[in-house]
Amino acid sequence: MAEKNNIVVIFNDDHAQWALGSYGNRELHTPTLDHLAHTGVQMENAFTPTPVCSPARACFLTGRLASQHGVHDYLASNDAEIHGHNWLQDEITLAQILSQAGYQTALCGKWHLGNDEQPQPGFDHWFSLSGDYPFAHDGSSRYSDNGHLQEISGYETPVITDRAIEFLRQRDQNQPFFLYVGFRATHSPWQGHPERLAAQYRQSAFEDVPPDVAYPFGRQNLESTTYRRSDPREGLAQYYAAVSALDQATGRLLDELDALDLRETTLLVYTSDHGLCCGHHGIWGKGNGTLPLNMVEESIRVPMIFNQPGRLFEQQRRREFVDHVDLFQTLASYAGVELAAKGDNYYPGRSFLPMLENSGSLPNWRNEQFGEYGNLRMVRTETHKLVRRYPDGPCELFDLQADPRETVNLFDDLVHQSLVKRLTARIDDYFGACQDPVKSGLRVRELPRHNRSEAWRTKMV
């Protein structure tokens, strides 16, 4: 194409795939997102490479796995050394790539990769949450406006939306733009969301949250235990209210794109860093909702919706396995960027842009999904999931067809040893081909949650 189109990525925090009407939730009110899915392309099997905040964001922004970029857990901003470190200083981000390709670039919302208050390389405009994680969703919070800290009062989601709209109105109209919007509404604490939204859910049956027993392969962490023992129905009402708030914020952005006559020249992507359990498996949380860390479906599945009228092949629900490193490649391809050759497997993802632009399939697309979290590694096929915790376990094998709730561990079952061996070889081959030995997650032994950031700093900084 002679003229480059624009890109808006809404990258949420803890918005699980199950918590969206277009993915089958029967009680959530998400008309804007359901419309985008119906008139666009919805990826039915979209995953996060790592089910926790900072590494997932790093995977998307760099197109590389945690065992390549070296960010393996959430970055504790209350530790000055961790928060002050530029965790992507050795990487080239999507923002830098698009900036070099002539895009005007902006971040509005959550960064969570160190130095949140300072504009990061590749971004022309910077409006970020400060490093004060976690904090209330409503009230007075600190934000960085292009490096200048300021206190802003109000509900966080519309504050971020306001600044994203401001960028759209004030941008350089002679350049295409990349707008990265980082909402945080669905992250804990699950309280303080608008009463007008929460009230509509307090009488809900929450039929889309299975009445699971406690996670049988570990123990819940403190956050999970707190919500499980306090008021789970109120927690769910607040989480659902947060999703509705995100839907309304997305609607405001769409309305602005329409008003500026930008809808047909702008690709909008809606996704999340990872999933979340809200009582699923007895867990309240994501991959670190249990110890040992988990890879349950609700933790690793994310929504991924694409919409651009007139450009995409509409009303598609694609079944292929995709993740954030594939999304990186897809957006680079959409922008017409030829990524610099850096050796085999430097970028483990693959562009699926042709899937979005026509109804056909790509040859030799993978039928398995890999994931990692520190010393945990996973492979998920269409029928089974193997979770290995190196070097000593415990390990899990689930038959996802016979046991979709992941309740029966078949890892030690004699009948399944050939499958365990074959899937283990796939994990070893995949990560062995692309990991950086210095930054590999296998260098980190799992520690109690409050010590984990110390281990990351010692080994990675």
List the helices and strands and how they pair.
Blueprint: E1 6-12, H1 31-39, E2 41-47, H2 53-62, H3 66-69, H4 80-83, H5 94-100, E3 104-109, E4 125-129, E5 140-145, E6 148-153, H6 156-170, E7 177-182, H7 195-198, E8 219-220, H8 222-229, H9 232-259, E9 266-272, E10 277-278, E11 284-285, E12 290-291, H10 297-300, E13 304-307, E14 316-323, H11 324-334, H12 353-357, E15 368-373, E16 376-381, E17 384-389, E18 396-399, H13 417-434, H14 452-460
Helix pairs in contact: 2-11, 6-9
Task: Give the N-to-C terminal Cα separation.
Answer: 42 Å
Q: Count of helical segments?
A: 14
CATH topology: Alkaline Phosphatase, subunit A
What's the architecture in CATH terms?
A: 3-Layer(aba) Sandwich
Strand % is 15-25%
CATH superfamily heading: Alkaline Phosphatase, subunit A
Backbone CA Rg: 21 Å
Low-confidence stretches: 446-461
Main sheet characteristics: 10 strands, mixed
Placed side by side, the strands forming the largest sheet appear as 6-5-4-3-7-1-9-13-2-14
Shape annotation? globular
The top level CATH class name: Alpha Beta
As a percent range, the share of helical residues equals 25-40%
**What structural category characterises the helix and strand content?**
alpha/beta
Mean pLDDT: 92
Give the tally of structural domains.
Answer: 1
Number of strands: 18
